[in-house]
Amino acid sequence: MARRCAFYGKGKLDVKAIEAGYKRDEETFVFVAMLNDGLFYDRKARRVFEEECLNGNHEHRYRRRLDQIQKRCPPLTLGRWLNGWSIATRKR
Length: 92
Description:
By secondary structure, this protein is mainly α. The chain has helices spanning about 1-10, 15-35, 45-55, 60-70.
């Protein structure tokens, strides 16, 4: 588990890795993957992560993480698919 968490937090998470990690470790994957800066700059991977993995338990932490990265790097915004959308309810 420790090695997988290290990969989720620092490795290259493409769409395939996100789907596999979430299928295997679910909430642990989501919690650790939010620490991976690279996830936020890969549009396809980020979209899959937001749509398939996030739930109401992590919405606040995810938005705080976006703010944190935006303060030190080029601007990040919520994807079109997430703007005005509550992760907890999955409604627009």
